[in-house]
Amino acid sequence: MSPVRLDRRQVLGAGIGGLLATLAAPRLATAAAATPGEARLVLVQLRGALDGLAAVPPVGDPDLARVRGALALAPPGTPGGAFALDSLFALHPALAFCAARWGAGELLAAHALATPYRERSHFDGQAVLENGGDAPSGSASGWLNRVLQALPEAGLRGGGAGDAPAQASGAPLGLALGQNVPQVLRGPVPVATWAPSRLPEVDADLLSRLQDLYADDGALSARLAQATGAGALVGEAGAAGSGERLRGIAATAGRMLAAEDGPRIAVIDSSGWDTHAGEGAARGLLALRLRGLDQALEALHGGLGAAWSRSVVVVVTEFGRTVAPNGTRGTDHGTGTVALLLGGAVHGGRVLADWPGLRPAQLHEGRDLRPTASLHGLLKGVLRDHLGLGRRALDEVFPRSLAARPVDALVRGG
Q1: For residue 190, pLDDT beyond 60
Q2: Domains identified in the chain, total number
Q3: Structural domain includes residue 402
């Protein structure tokens, strides 16, 4: 079934009330709408592989400065230094809003984790991230669409993710912020889409495929990374500066989720995280990206308003990056990375990590942060304790992931 498509003029002209009337039009038979007071979930996908050692650096690890070289951040308490989180971890200085959420007990970081995927292709890594399985192929639907099927208010027969959705009226429970529905939301449950009228001209998926194609050619890979880095700052930012488009999308997502009978789940995509060249430390391409992300999360917080207290925002990426810098002042495709949870419903102020260390013998294949935790386990914990999914539904949302146990106590009261 085709998604409901909305453009910026519809939202601005009709307001949220008119928007919801559009979503509930008779042309769409879908799941029953959420009622006030229910949990909201936002998934933010960072496409291109976030450098987790830069976003949440383990400043207490004695090997960090040695292995990171010019990419190492100044320690907490020094000019331009990272925000201290605990005795081992800090937060990149560009993440000021996230640091404030940490102080409010509303930010949790989970480090040294990964999906089951252990290769380094953006295309395949993103497929595993979105299909919820253990391989790039094998699942026609995305794991979040299977979550929508499992929600009690979806009117399903039997309440499991394998059932077919009932024919009920109301606004879609899922919302994709962008021109297209990402794989993670594709499936039998209809979802709505919204995109601003101004969009980047360069397709992010095409860029990812080119980056994979040139991965074994150092010169071409570096030139492409430099070009896409500069282009991304213009494309995603819009005319007025870095991050403007992403901030606008996030603010709109927040307002739509906060509406009385708005969607319960939304997905926001952000591209341009493939920092092969010019990554930088406190300044550079990654710092600009992180600042744009931080401002978008702040805009999401503002848009949600009172609904922030019952929301969880999950920030994920397909895999991490190499521990050591490359020859073009960047990092290459890696394995272990970091995920962030924030929101008023998050039991935050903590970093969850079974830290593997950064010495050569402790690395994955001698080059990457070794994963010691499962992203699927983290997501299962959120879905169980925040959205109320049972064991059967979790097993269907993440097939072939029985070994990944749900992480406990991620949300308040969970």
Answers
A1: yes
A2: 1
A3: no
